[in-house]
Amino acid sequence: MTNRINNFNAGPAALPLPVLEQIREEFLDLNGSGMSILEISHRSKWFDKIINEAIERTKRLLKLGDDFQVLFIQGGASLQFCMIPMNLSLENKPVDYINTGTWSTKAIKEAEAQGKDVRALASSEDRNFAYIPYDVKEDGRAAYLHFTSNNTIKGTQWTKFPDAGGVPLICDMSSDIMSRPFDASPFGLIYAGAQKNIGPSGTAMVIIRKDMLDRVPSGLPSMLKYSTFAEKNSMFNTPPCFVIYTISLVLRWIEETIGGIDRMDQINREKAALLYKLIDSSGFYKGTADKDSRSLMNITFRLADEGLEKKFIAEALEHGFGGLKGHRSVGGCRASIYNATGIVQVKALKNFMADFEKREG
Amino acid sequence: MTNRINNFNAGPAALPLPVLEQIREEFLDLNGSGMSILEISHRSKWFDKIINEAIERTKRLLKLGDDFQVLFIQGGASLQFCMIPMNLSLENKPVDYINTGTWSTKAIKEAEAQGKDVRALASSEDRNFAYIPYDVKEDGRAAYLHFTSNNTIKGTQWTKFPDAGGVPLICDMSSDIMSRPFDASPFGLIYAGAQKNIGPSGTAMVIIRKDMLDRVPSGLPSMLKYSTFAEKNSMFNTPPCFVIYTISLVLRWIEETIGGIDRMDQINREKAALLYKLIDSSGFYKGTADKDSRSLMNITFRLADEGLEKKFIAEALEHGFGGLKGHRSVGGCRASIYNATGIVQVKALKNFMADFEKREG
Q1: pLDDT tens digits for A150-182?
Q2: Is A196 exposed, middle or buried (CB count within 10 Å of its CB: 0-12, 13-18, 19+)?
Q3: Best residue in A35, A82, A336 to probe B by mutation, most B CBs within 10 Å?
Q4: Which of B6, B33, B39, B329 has the most A C-beta neighbours within 10 Å, making it the best mutation to test the interface with A?
Q5: Shortest Cα distance from B201 to chain A (angstroms)?
Q6: Are B205 and B58 within 8 A, CB to CB?
Q7: Is residue A96 among the annotated active site residues?
Q8: Where are the beta strands (DSSP E) in A272-313?
């Protein structure tokens, strides 16, 4: 395994090595079926066990009651941007959105394109999305309040979720689902593209509170209705079997190897602290997000001398640290340290960063 | 590899063993990247090469000119059922459909649910979809003519495509794409869920003639517009990377190991002939589809004594032949013999069937 790099990609991102090894191990013969996971029927007992394991582990890890249902819907978070207003808006009620960056902006755009009465309840656009606008005033009139829990591009994260006073929260948790515990009860719907914290690209995990299904308009196309997926356990048509299989293994790893979400959260805090401590103690690196809004998942930073960033990223890659380039829309540097990135990798990065500073600072 | 079964599943279905072995071989380190295919960025040079290889091979294999574009869209053929009328219908023009079974019926239903002026131009429902209604009269008024090239459940297949006299053909080729050559020029759009002939579940391949993109209404949600996928080489958002990677390897196998679509077609004809010959020469088995409409992909049959079918399927499984049960909606038996099912497996099945007849007949 000496040729594996330390992968700090923002997504698709690193997956736990034991999960990858298990997939490889059983790739030609899944569980005595004599077939690959790619070849088994989604109507088989083997796949039934897999999808139900993924659902049950999700419910246990996030402490979801039976009032929630876990769905898998292809198309990523981007398809959810349009499905949410299509399915869950209500006549004569506004839909509320908080704008904390690129992905929130896209979600808002899709709701507006459908002619919904969109209210931008709060935004951090005035300072280039470098902070979380914690001061949210929801007047209780909205059909839902949508926000993005973690912003991969700007490196910000809600440390405490907004209080919508009874209006169902809807949250894009693509980049921090399963990274920390939270109380799901104020949420009407939670969704996450799989390719950061829970698996490969190719599905969104959608957690819906069952009463929200009553809102689904009957005239929508079958494949765009949450109720279609809810009624058929996400198997109205052939689901993305391999992606769901990998998710079930990642969730097993979180539950059985790591020891659950609380422990995962603790490790994630330790990892982030290592890097933020280095950044804060240095004049050489500088964090880009406000301290009370910093992400535990995506550590965004610049070099005080921005002209050195290209060299930093190139040398890092030579030393086996990949994915440190900031998003093409903002530049700079970013270390994405999702669940699967171990403390060992983060320590190694920290050491490299300290060395680089010593050489170039 | 002794524990691999002979897999006659209808989909997800058998994949070429060399493809599975290559995936396994490079699963922890794709092409010197130091990352798994599950972990690389879709914006990386590695993935760019993969998706472009899948597109180029598709164009070469199907002899598509530059007037066609190859897209990958999540959601399977079922999402296409709704995207097609949404994107490609025209004001004041009917949309024409031919009904040859379960999947055609679903496609029709989705167009009707959108309030489109759907004309059922031909149907084989009168005899339980046991034949292809070759006698199609298109009056030239329609925005498009939709049909299903191969019907997995009923075991029928168009041996010669309908003539729509200039009206763009739209075809669901989920179960026979890449199995035989055809002239793409009358087609406005071809789509196929990947999980039968070209890969695992998790994407549809969509081949669109570029002039059809002019029809896309601007007000549609981004993720439901063909133009969004066409403009961004299917990477408006994160695509299902692993699925596209596997497709690229399957297409490489068809092109380089098999030797192209003509050779693939020849092998597929030999395979089907083996089973149909046995069925026709026996009073013990009987085919369910009319001879001029028989599928080369899904051989559907009954036992003359239907009470023996359960035993047949169970004994077959004991002998290492899986997936022979007919679709739950029709019962009976079905051997799906897509591209990846070799002539060796088909011969072995034929021998088993002959033996079973000898024992039980």
Answers
A1: 999 999 999 999 999 999 999 999 999 999 999
A2: buried
A3: A35
A4: B39
A5: 5
A6: yes
A7: no
A8: 285-287, 298-303
Cβ distance A34 to B320 less than 8 Å, yes or no, reads yes
Q: What is the pLDDT of residues A251-263, one digit of tens each?
A: 999 999 999 999 9
**Whole domain around residue B71: which residue ranges?**
18-257
The CA R_g of chain A, rounded to the nearest whole Å, is 21
CA distance A348 to A315: 14
Q: How far apart are CA A237 and CA B78, in angstroms?
A: 7
Apex B127 CA angle, B124 and B129, nearest 5: 45
Strand-pair partners of A170: A146, A189
The whole-model pTM stands at 0.98
Nearest alpha-carbon partner for A119 in A143, A103, A100, A135: A143
- Compute the residue count for chain B: 361
Chain pair A-B, CB pairs under 8 angstroms = 208
For residue A181, give both structure tokens: 């515990």
Contact between chains at B38 and A246 (C-beta distance less than 8 A): yes
Clarify whether residues A89 and A39 are in a common domain.
Answer: yes
Contacts with B59 (C-beta within 8 Å, 6 or more apart), sequence order: B68, B70
Pairing of strands A6-7, A321-322: parallel
- Nearest Cβ partner for B240 among A15, A113, A201: A201
**ipTM score assigned to the predicted complex:** 0.98
Domain with residue B331: its CATH number is: 3.90.1150.10
- B11, part of any domain: no
The answer to whether residue B328 sits within a structural domain is yes
pLDDT at B259 over 90: yes
CA A208/CA A211 separation, integer angstroms:
8
Chain A partners within 8 Å of B76 (Cβ): 74, 237-238
Q: Which residue type is seen at B248?
A: S
